[in-house]
Amino acid sequence: MNITIHRGSNQIGGCVTEYESNGWKLFVDYGEQLPGYAVTSLQVEGLTHGDLSKSALLITHYHGDHVACIADLHEELPIYIGQTAKGILEGLSEHVGYVDKKQKALNIRLKSANTFTPGVSLECGEFQITPVVMDHSAFDAYAFRIEAGGLKVFHTGDFRTHGFRSSKLPQVIEKYVGRVDYLVCEATNVCRPVAGVMSEHELQTEFVKAFAENKYNVVYLSSTNIDRLFGLYHAALKTGRPFYVDGYQKKIMDIVAGKNRIWGKSRLYRYKEGREPIVLHREGDEFRVNDKFRDNLSENGYVIIARGGRRFDSLLSRIPSEGRKTYFSMWRGYLDKSNVAYSSELAQSVPVNYEYLHTSGHCDMESLDWLFSTLSPRAIIPIHTDNPRAFADLFCDKWPILMMQDGETFRAIKDPLDME
What we know:
- This protein is of the alpha/beta class.
- The protein has helices at about 65, 85-95, 100-110, 170-175, 200-215, 225-240, 245-255, 290-300, 310-315, 345-350, 365-375, 390-395; strands at about 1-5, 15-20, 25-30, 55-60, 80, 115, 120-125, 125-135, 140-150, 150-155, 180-185, 215-220, 245, 280, 280-285, 285, 300-305, 325-330, 355, 380-385, 410.
């Protein structure tokens, strides 16, 4: 088996990994690069051009840096993605597609994508692939156990061990993965040692305290951070605060609520009967605000899930606000003018006196060490990191680390002792 990192050996996002065996090619992710990195245009045989008859593309999750470029790929190339992830991505594309031509094209390409079932293997020529559901800030995110030529590789995708669903990871790894020959692993937080210290449970507890203490609450967060959204919904229920979202946000939550086969038994993704999120009604290009609505907010308070932009700015200027608390539950880089990911629209909407309540969607280094010990790979290839050297320095005393460059190919072979 040959493993090629086409992009992602020294940057976060935009990763493209290729696995090749006897002419069959399996690619994992094809997303856009994050701001701040030199733009690279990939021309990859079997992916962007050439013979596609022995190729397939796997998508780990719906974040743009993993999926956003699939519209550029020929319709002959099979694409595979999780079923619920596909539904969420379609909802997002339909919401912004009318103003974003690239998002509209992505949605068209997505319609022909195949879906897979976690734990159920699928075959692509020489490859046997088992999707393994992981906990990440994107819902329905996957790792893949990839087997070919007697070799087993585990491609982690983006994941963490401090989310609501992370307690199941050891059982999932034991049942669906076991020991592997090679590990291709995300290393996003290698230079952020404290990232992810707070769990989603702990974060939800902080929000419960905040909502109980403050009558009027506004939270800015990603519209597709499903676990955070449902955590906030339940925090609002516990404190008796009405929970308000716009129509798009409600649609995204409905895709998951009580319908997901993987986590259908979890109460986290269920609405309490008679207490579903309240949809903010529109009148033209504004949210409707009348005396009855204001009186209700004044009496009961509120938790409003907001996004940057004029529509929410206008809403918040027209409703009761004395003592209002605003929380920012996203990466701080979006509000930092010195950061290339700075969002002027979001920064203009979020008041300067906001409270920061957030935790990472990526794994901490102690948990990565646990994963390595569990899988016991012969070598680890870090991707999705802006500092592979720091990763190697951290783990090389215990594990062989292969520091690859973009475009470089590693020929994975069986250990001769395994062949005796």
